Amino acid sequence: MSDSTNIVGQQIGNYHLDSLLGHGGFADVYLGTHVYLHTQAAIKLLHTELDEEGIEAFRNESLTIAHLIHPHIVRVLDFDVENNNPFLVMDYAPNGSLRQRHVKGNRLPSATIVSYVQQVASALQYAHDQKLIHRDVKPGNMLLSHNNEVLLSDFGIALVSQSSRNQQTEDVVIGTMSYMAPEQIQGKSRPSSDQYALAAVVYEWLCGAKLFRGSYIELVTQHLSAPPPPFSEHGVQVPPAVERVVFRALSKDYHQRFPRVQDFAHALEQAYQTPQGFVSSQSPAPASAPRQAIILPPPPASTQQAQMQMPAPPVQMQTAASTKPVASSYTDQTPPITTFPPITTFLPGKSIPPRATSAIRKTGRVLKRGAIILLTIALLLTLALCGGSYAVYHYFTTRNTTVTASNGVPAATTKADDFVNAIVSRNYDHAYTDLGPSVTNQTTKDALVQQIQQDNSCYGAISGDSRVTNNTTAQGNSLNYVYNMTRSKMSQPYQLTVTLQQDDGGNWQITDYHNNITSVQSACSK
């Protein structure tokens, strides 16, 4: 069944294969007609043959995908394995994909881009809330329904492909390199990896060229380390606010991207509403507005008499009667201002000797420098005292302070949730890196994976998880987080407990994890 040229006209499941719609690196898609209902659907056949364990994993993953019900996600109608060949039955999108609608090299209008991003982001956010990562966001997987609404296809197909253990091509495992986030290349996919891919698609729509170009190795290197080329390199003028939004979503560090893909879509829409970014609220005055010359009144008579006693350079006096208003703009020079000679104060009948004046000035400079030095020394001593006090406080609090379940430790909560999410999404490499040294020194990654796979085989794949917020316990500087877990073969949930402890540096480490699955349901026999 792997030969796509020989199976058109054959039947798979309850569908007659009418024609080939598309050929990919790991699957072929056919237009099929239900033999009884006479309804059309898209049939995706994976290029692989599964063993018994692979069939079970494929069905578990497909069951998760089939429960994704969203107006912008292609619905999975059915799935099965026939003659060890897995296939999916999906809604048929008659208007093709956005890759077919918009030919490579064409730029899209801003309104069209915003509309597409909003629809795709809403689908991705829904999946992320269900703890599912797409892993292959690209124009070819954005289909168009009968009313031209965007439908995101191949949701979770990377997981299905991993379950099938297809080793024929790298694309089966890692997706499409042109849109792949750095952490996904390294085997650590996260929800923000889909945000990066969507931003790479937006980049292509804006300038008509892909984010990076080159060979496979060159693409890997550029996604890992090269900054996105400015739009100006493609001869495209993009509003600065839009460029900032797109480049933030393309950050190499996923922490620097938007917290959610829906936030990226909203920011892009807002950026187009203010395309020039920050604009000053002050408006320049009209150029024709005249600027009046400033005239200072003459000095008092007593001052004039005092000045007459001192030699002074001649000064050109300007009166109001001889001054005319001067029209000016922002480029005009400063208008003329009446000036007067400096006034020198002295004791009547006495004068200060030059040597005394020089000594007074030197004394003042010495006192000023001394005051500056003393203030600098006092400031440095204060900073050193504060720093030392904080170091002592931090040392004793991290080692001896008892943690309570109610005081809120976001770093520990994030670490525990990240570990559980990695296990649920079968990202075992990432789950192992979350473990602290006290665990990794006694347990290898292979042992961890083997235990998880044994649980999946006995009790079915994990179908849901939720942290019990009112069951977090503390003991000393340790925290215990409890999660309710559900599996496809279990009628009731069991509990997974994750224990974290602060090290000397104040960092949280996972020191233990265990579950009560055998007390909820007896162990299966191999």
Keywords:
alpha+beta; Transferase(Phosphotransferase), domain 1; Nuclear Transport Factor 2, Chain: A; 3 domains; six-stranded antiparallel β-sheet; five-stranded antiparallel β-sheet; 15 strands; flat
How is this structure best described in words?
The structure is a single chain. The protein is an alpha+beta fold and 526 residues long. It has three domains: 263 residues, Transferase(Phosphotransferase) domain 1 (Transferase(Phosphotransferase), domain 1, Orthogonal Bundle); 40 residues; 111 residues, NTF2-like, domain 1 (Nuclear Transport Factor 2, Chain: A), CATH 3.10.450. Helix content is 39%, strand content 16%. It contains 17 helices and 15 strands. The chain has a six-stranded antiparallel beta sheet with strand order 1-2-3-4-6-5, with helices on one face. A hairpin with a 2-residue loop joins strand 12 and strand 13. Helix 9 packs antiparallel against helix 10. The longest helix is centred in the last third of the chain and has 47 residues. The protein starts with 10 loop residues before the first strand and ends in a 6-residue tail after the last helix.
Our Rg estimate from Cα atoms comes to 36 Å
Give the name of the CATH superfamily of the largest domain. Answer: Transferase(Phosphotransferase) domain 1
**Proportion of helical residues:** 25-40%
CATH architecture of the largest domain: Orthogonal Bundle
Count of discrete alpha- or pi-helical segments spanning 4 or more residues: 17
Q: What is the number of beta strands?
A: 15
Major sheet: 6 strands, antiparallel
CATH fold label of the largest domain = Transferase(Phosphotransferase), domain 1
